[in-house]
Protein backbone atom coordinates (compact mmCIF):
# COMPACT_ATOMS: atom_id res chain seq x y z
CA UNK A 1 0.00 0.00 0.00
CA UNK A 2 1.55 3.32 -1.01
CA UNK A 3 1.09 6.78 0.47
CA UNK A 4 -1.37 7.97 -2.17
CA UNK A 5 -3.67 5.05 -1.38
CA UNK A 6 -3.49 5.85 2.32
CA UNK A 7 -4.24 9.53 1.66
CA UNK A 8 -7.20 8.67 -0.58
CA UNK A 9 -8.56 6.20 1.98
CA UNK A 10 -8.27 8.68 4.84
CA UNK A 11 -9.83 11.48 2.78
CA UNK A 12 -12.77 9.28 1.73
CA UNK A 13 -13.57 8.47 5.36
CA UNK A 14 -13.64 12.10 6.46
CA UNK A 15 -16.78 14.15 6.32
CA UNK A 16 -16.50 17.89 5.47
CA UNK A 17 -18.86 18.70 8.39
CA UNK A 18 -16.56 17.37 11.10
CA UNK A 19 -13.19 18.56 12.27
CA UNK A 20 -10.86 16.73 10.00
CA UNK A 21 -8.49 15.07 12.42
CA UNK A 22 -7.15 11.61 12.06
CA UNK A 23 -4.52 9.85 14.05
CA UNK A 24 -2.05 7.61 12.29
CA UNK A 25 0.21 5.26 14.17
CA UNK A 26 3.37 5.68 12.13
CA UNK A 27 6.88 5.45 13.44
CA UNK A 28 8.35 7.56 10.64
CA UNK A 29 6.58 10.11 8.49
CA UNK A 30 8.39 11.72 5.59
CA UNK A 31 8.15 15.44 4.99
CA UNK A 32 6.61 15.05 1.51
CA UNK A 33 3.83 12.87 2.93
CA UNK A 34 3.15 15.47 5.61
CA UNK A 35 2.95 18.22 2.98
CA UNK A 36 0.70 16.21 0.66
CA UNK A 37 -1.70 15.28 3.48
CA UNK A 38 -1.90 18.84 4.77
CA UNK A 39 -2.55 20.06 1.23
CA UNK A 40 -5.73 17.94 1.27
CA UNK A 41 -6.83 19.78 4.40
CA UNK A 42 -6.13 16.92 6.77
CA UNK A 43 -4.67 17.76 10.15
CA UNK A 44 -2.62 14.81 11.15
CA UNK A 45 -1.33 13.65 14.45
CA UNK A 46 1.45 11.09 14.45
CA UNK A 47 1.88 8.92 17.52
CA UNK A 48 5.33 7.54 18.28
CA UNK A 49 5.69 5.22 21.24
CA UNK A 50 8.77 3.58 22.69
CA UNK A 51 7.75 1.12 25.34
CA UNK A 52 10.66 -0.68 26.98
CA UNK A 53 12.64 -1.73 23.97
CA UNK A 54 14.80 -3.97 26.16
CA UNK A 55 13.88 -5.85 29.31
CA UNK A 56 15.52 -4.83 32.55
CA UNK A 57 17.05 -8.30 33.05
CA UNK A 58 18.67 -8.32 29.61
CA UNK A 59 19.89 -4.75 30.16
CA UNK A 60 21.52 -5.77 33.44
CA UNK A 61 23.26 -8.72 31.76
CA UNK A 62 24.45 -6.59 28.82
CA UNK A 63 25.61 -3.85 31.18
CA UNK A 64 27.63 -6.34 33.19
CA UNK A 65 29.18 -7.72 29.98
CA UNK A 66 30.10 -4.20 28.84
CA UNK A 67 31.79 -3.60 32.22
CA UNK A 68 33.81 -6.86 32.21
CA UNK A 69 36.90 -5.75 30.22
CA UNK A 70 37.42 -2.70 32.39
CA UNK A 71 36.77 -4.64 35.59
CA UNK A 72 39.26 -7.33 34.51
CA UNK A 73 41.98 -4.80 33.68
CA UNK A 74 41.43 -2.83 36.87
CA UNK A 75 41.26 -5.90 39.12
CA UNK A 76 44.39 -7.39 37.56
CA UNK A 77 46.29 -4.13 37.99
CA UNK A 78 45.21 -3.74 41.62
CA UNK A 79 45.77 -7.33 42.76
CA UNK A 80 48.92 -7.98 40.74
CA UNK A 81 47.93 -11.58 39.93
CA UNK A 82 51.07 -12.75 38.12
CA UNK A 83 49.64 -14.76 35.17
CA UNK A 84 47.28 -11.95 34.21
CA UNK A 85 49.57 -9.06 35.07
CA UNK A 86 51.99 -10.27 32.37
CA UNK A 87 49.17 -9.89 29.84
CA UNK A 88 48.50 -6.25 30.65
CA UNK A 89 51.93 -4.93 31.64
CA UNK A 90 55.62 -5.65 31.20
CA UNK A 91 58.33 -3.99 33.29
CA UNK A 92 55.84 -1.54 34.73
CA UNK A 93 54.55 -0.35 31.34
CA UNK A 94 51.25 -1.31 29.76
CA UNK A 95 51.34 -3.77 26.89
CA UNK A 96 49.34 -3.26 23.72
CA UNK A 97 46.85 -5.87 24.90
CA UNK A 98 46.58 -4.13 28.27
CA UNK A 99 45.94 -0.74 26.68
CA UNK A 100 43.40 -2.22 24.24
CA UNK A 101 41.62 -4.00 27.09
CA UNK A 102 41.56 -0.84 29.20
CA UNK A 103 40.25 1.40 26.40
CA UNK A 104 37.68 -1.14 25.22
CA UNK A 105 36.54 -1.39 28.81
CA UNK A 106 36.44 2.39 29.13
CA UNK A 107 34.29 2.60 26.00
CA UNK A 108 32.03 -0.20 27.28
CA UNK A 109 31.16 1.67 30.48
CA UNK A 110 29.04 4.38 28.79
CA UNK A 111 27.33 1.65 26.76
CA UNK A 112 26.46 -0.12 30.02
CA UNK A 113 24.96 3.15 31.25
CA UNK A 114 22.97 3.73 28.05
CA UNK A 115 21.60 0.18 27.82
CA UNK A 116 20.39 0.32 31.41
CA UNK A 117 18.96 3.83 30.98
CA UNK A 118 16.99 2.82 27.88
CA UNK A 119 15.54 -0.16 29.72
CA UNK A 120 14.16 2.15 32.41
CA UNK A 121 12.55 4.70 30.04
CA UNK A 122 9.32 4.68 28.10
CA UNK A 123 8.51 7.50 25.70
CA UNK A 124 5.29 8.56 24.02
CA UNK A 125 5.36 11.43 21.53
CA UNK A 126 2.49 12.88 19.52
CA UNK A 127 3.50 15.04 16.55
CA UNK A 128 0.95 17.35 14.94
CA UNK A 129 1.54 19.94 12.28
CA UNK A 130 2.42 22.73 14.71
CA UNK A 131 3.19 21.02 17.99
CA UNK A 132 4.81 18.12 19.75
CA UNK A 133 3.37 16.61 22.90
CA UNK A 134 5.27 14.04 24.84
CA UNK A 135 5.41 11.91 27.91
CA UNK A 136 8.58 10.36 29.24
CA UNK A 137 8.22 7.85 32.05
CA UNK A 138 11.05 6.53 34.20
CA UNK A 139 10.61 3.03 35.67
CA UNK A 140 13.73 2.34 37.73
CA UNK A 141 14.84 -1.13 38.77
CA UNK A 142 17.51 -1.36 41.44
CA UNK A 143 19.92 -3.55 39.46
CA UNK A 144 19.72 -1.25 36.44
CA UNK A 145 20.29 1.82 38.60
CA UNK A 146 23.35 0.24 40.23
CA UNK A 147 24.93 -0.84 36.95
CA UNK A 148 24.08 2.43 35.18
CA UNK A 149 25.36 4.63 38.01
CA UNK A 150 28.53 2.59 38.44
CA UNK A 151 29.28 2.59 34.73
CA UNK A 152 28.65 6.32 34.45
CA UNK A 153 30.70 7.31 37.49
CA UNK A 154 33.67 5.07 36.69
CA UNK A 155 33.70 6.25 33.05
CA UNK A 156 33.47 9.86 34.23
CA UNK A 157 36.32 9.49 36.74
CA UNK A 158 38.69 7.60 34.44
CA UNK A 159 37.76 9.64 31.37
CA UNK A 160 38.45 12.84 33.29
CA UNK A 161 41.74 11.39 34.50
CA UNK A 162 42.78 10.63 30.91
CA UNK A 163 41.82 14.12 29.76
CA UNK A 164 43.79 15.73 32.60
CA UNK A 165 46.84 13.57 31.74
CA UNK A 166 46.56 14.52 28.06
CA UNK A 167 46.41 18.22 28.95
CA UNK A 168 49.42 17.87 31.26
CA UNK A 169 51.33 16.04 28.52
CA UNK A 170 50.54 18.80 26.03
CA UNK A 171 51.90 21.37 28.46
CA UNK A 172 55.24 19.60 28.78
CA UNK A 173 54.83 17.28 31.76
CA UNK A 174 56.70 14.25 30.35
CA UNK A 175 55.73 11.91 33.20
CA UNK A 176 52.03 12.29 32.22
CA UNK A 177 52.68 11.19 28.62
CA UNK A 178 52.92 7.42 29.20
Structure description:
The protein is of the alpha+beta class and 178 residues long. The chain folds into 2 domains: 1-51, no CATH class; 53-120 and 139-177, no CATH class. The chain contains 6 helices and 6 strands, in the order αβαβααββαββα. The chain has a 4-stranded mixed sheet. The protein has a two-stranded antiparallel ribbon with strand order 3-4. The radius of gyration is 26 Å and the shape is elongated. The termini are far apart. Residues 15-29 have low confidence and may be disordered.
Summarize this structure as a short list of keywords or feature phrases.
single chain, 178 residues, alpha+beta, 2 domains, 4-stranded mixed sheet, two-stranded antiparallel sheet, 6 helices, elongated
Number of domains: 2
Mean pLDDT level: 76
Low-confidence blocks of residues: 15-29
The percentage of residues in β strands lies in: 15-25%
Explain the layout of strands and helices.
Elements: H1 3-13, E1 21-24, H2 31-39, E2 43-51, H3 56-79, H4 82-88, E3 89-90, E4 93-94, H5 96-120, E5 121-128, E6 132-138, H6 142-170
Helix pairs in contact: 3-5, 3-6, 5-6
Amino acid sequence: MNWNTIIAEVKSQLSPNIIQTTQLNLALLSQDLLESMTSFGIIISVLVGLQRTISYKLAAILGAIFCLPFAFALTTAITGFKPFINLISTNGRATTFGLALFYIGLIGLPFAFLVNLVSMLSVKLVFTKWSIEGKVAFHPKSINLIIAATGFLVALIFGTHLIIDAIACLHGNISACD
